[in-house]
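Thread: quick sanity check before group meeting

JM: Hey all, I'm pulling together slides for Thursday and realized we never actually wrote out the predicted structure for the chain we discussed last week. Dropping the sequence here so it's in one place. If anyone has concerns about the input, flag it before I start.
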Amino acid sequence: MHASKRLLICMNAAALLASTARAGLPIASLAYMQNFAAQSANPGSDSIFAAQPVGLPPLPVQPAVPTPPPTDLNAPSPASGPAPTAPSAAKPADRRSAQNDALEDEISPELETAVTKGIAALVRTQRKDGSFGDGPFGGNVAITSLACLALMSDGHTPGRGVYGENVSRGLEFILKSCDESGKSGLIASDSANGPMYGHGFATLFLGEVYGMTAGGGDTALAARVHEALVKAVRLIQTTQNDEGGWRYNPVPYDADISVTICQIMALRSARNAGLEIPKVTIDKAVEYVRACQNANDGGFRYQVSQGPSLWPRSAAGVASLFYAGIYTDEAINKGINYLMQNALPGHANAQQQQLHYFYGHYYAVQAMFLAGGDSWARWWPAIRTELLSKQHSDGLWDDTSVGNAYGTSMSLIILQMPKRYLPIFQK
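JM (edit): ok, ran it. Output follows.
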């Protein structure tokens, strides 16, 4: 191997291991996570709180820790400065996940400083009951789950790491928010507005936690997480409507692409954690997402019936196909191209960018990471630069609609994609 390639791989490994050590997470847990990962009522709105069907691919049994291939040094290299001057269509041939194909200087010193400051600021907003959220969104299941995922993105898990206790408190809030009767499996808090949003994010959180609990799967906490996860997944399966999607309430009568992607990610996480997910459930969901794509521009509309493409829900549409186990498809190519033309940070219409900004970029960065290649190489430095410039002096990011805890959680999840901790972000 060329010396420069060996150096680049060592630098990426060193950055990840340094983050692991800082969080207090054993190296063995990092290896486990790598093994584990191998495997609106207002139409046209992306509000997160108000045809070849393919099932999920089987999980390998005890896969070996993957060895990252040499990084292509001829690929565009991210810079810490402004993004390129003109967006262009992504290349269909570049559909290789960034999972084992790290870019040079993905994790910059400026990013590490911002993340450290942001995490410290986020945990200061945690409420006495373990939840996160501001104002009318205080004690919100979705925001609490996202905040805990932001901490887990830095290697902090229940009982492990500097902020492991904060994750444990958040987890306890989620478990206490499960249906007390134990019958429906719904995870919702008193502040829930459209409970299937919160349910989807909470189920995703439980799926990521399960199997990573200190002490393994035989602990009492792991048993509680497993029971809640099984019931939550069952609710998702039984509330899928005839079109293949989901909507705000846990009844199978309507659907939109925004709520649907929440449930697809939750099912994928549960599948990664070892739960059995019926192939027909995923196939129907894929049919719904495909039906929401506009043929003229490759973007996605809010519901099947009609409507324009908007970039936040288009990012969700592309990500949902990846999480359904589809990695090479013309629908993905068209969706990636639409995002490049309409949402690449530094190039898109500024007013349009602010519409559900954090929600859109949460899904967009996942889509580009899973697309890999030129898509990731161009998107990552652009969103990194933009998000770093938006952080306030107190370490928080503000979402004017939902609050600081939400904006900060989303920003931290986005900025920590290159750490590759969470299994959900792997193919």
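AS: nice. Confidence is low (pLDDT under 50) at residues 1-86. The chain has 15 helices and no strands.
JM: adding both to the slides.
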